[in-house]
Amino acid sequence: MTSPLPPEVSLSALGPRTRIGAGGQGTVYALADDPRWVYKEYASRLVDDVDVATLNRFVRLAAEAGPDADALLGLAAWPTAVVRKEGTVRGFLMPRVPDRFRVRLRLPRGPDTVLAQVQYLLNSDDYLLDRGLHVDDRMRLELLRDTGEALTLLHRLGVCVGDLSPNNLLFSLDGRPRCYFIDCDAMRLAGDSVLAQAETPEWHVPDADAEELATPATDAFKFGLLAVRLFAGDQQTRDPDAARRRLARPLVALAGRSLDPAPDRRPTPEQWLDALDRSIRRTPPTPPTRRGPTRRNAPRWSPVRRVVPGPGAASPRPATRGWGPLVVAAFAAIAALVGLLTANGDPSPTTRQNLPTGPWRNTAPPFAYPGSPTRIPGLVLPTGSPAGLPGYPDLSLPTYPYLGDRLPLIEVCLLTDVRVGAGLNRTSARTKAAVLAVRSFLCSINNETPPLDDPSRTQAARVAALTKRGPFAGATIIGLRTAADGSPQVNVVFEPRGAGSSAGCRRSRLSLARDGDGYRVSSLAAPVWASCP
């Protein structure tokens, strides 16, 4: 192959090639005859879906952008030639990622040189030190500034990134920090896409059902999300206050505006540049700290994949609304009813001290109740007792009517709180239905009753893995999307009762299925460690 590249080349003209990577859309090959370029070949199932005219427009942009062409090719692995096989478009050529956007890391499997994906930077300082990365706030500001400038150029050329996420964005810390975009054929040019738009989990816009994808407004939203997570060291938060400790107040304010659910209220990346310049001037570099890896600081992230579009994750723990008064009323009802029953049974003061302090469960033993992470040993249902009058031979309790039979609403469900993260539409019917489904699921696992209908062995193991971390005081819905089959999926963070954030929360994606007029949880992804809201 010779330079410059023609706009179209034959697959047979590429010569020997070596596979260097693969993803959901296709496979990437290095070219032995010209190491400047790599070839992305679309998966066979996608070949017929490729918008060839739009792909050709991507290629022409790199050749016709004038003074901006060099800048475009310097910040992105942009398509530079369409590749055909027997007349059919099979993929395209793009620049090979420059070496400066690769990084040597100390990984759990051992030292390795990998693509410098920004997802590595969205972690705590301890994690970065354990990986052998020195990243201070000056570097973060300069990287964010370069990304904002790159987005400004792309928008001026009519390009929207769309799936702006930490696995599609690379970083370089050599000299002045720089950014570099990959998967550029997933971007949108003048309103057109090569393939259907998709988004990365946890990087969704607030309501993808209502908001058009891959617009300057969605890029502005995700740029604000990047700023918050980069300075918070957290891959999931959407709370601008999480970055307040190390991000200047004007930038926190810009991040808050960028995360506004209303697209027209979000500042453009260009509007960040002056504030970033001022903050960079006021932030001196920090000398590197050297430390070897520790077991305590094992990585707490996992690579993310791109999926079909849907509403995005939202920030943890906004102010609790709606259920607080109901919980208070439930406690009052419990107290009143227990008082009435106690008066009728006239238990001794010693007996009163042995009463459980939370609601009782209407299931078979072992008995468990909120507020106690342990079970009461020896608690069995009596044989031959009248219906609704269980006795507990190992406790010095009188026999009372089962409160669940007298007041069915007093359940663990009332004493756990399911919140909706900021950025999600709390008033939509779908969100409300998701809250009810998650609440029912949370009630079941706290009560250790089967939450799924006829679960498979894998699903039963996942439920058990989540249940053993409970009981959970509450949960936060941080993401809501539509799966490929049209069913809702929710990303949920479960918060252990009384353990505090040091114990870590658990996150899972729950798939919902229609259940009458509402939804129920039909399956869940394997629970993973997550920072507590």
From TrEMBL:
Write out the biased-composition intervals (Polar residues). 345-356
Q: Where is the Protein kinase domain?
A: 14-280
Gene3D superfamilies tied to this protein: Transferase(Phosphotransferase) domain 1
* Highest taxon above the source species: Bacteria
Residue ranges of region Disordered?
Answer: 258-320, 343-362
**GO molecular function per UniProt:** ATP binding; protein kinase activity
Report what the protein is called. Answer: Protein kinase domain-containing protein
Give the organism the record lists.
Micromonospora carbonacea
**Taxonomic classification:** Bacteria, Bacillati, Actinomycetota, Actinomycetes, Micromonosporales
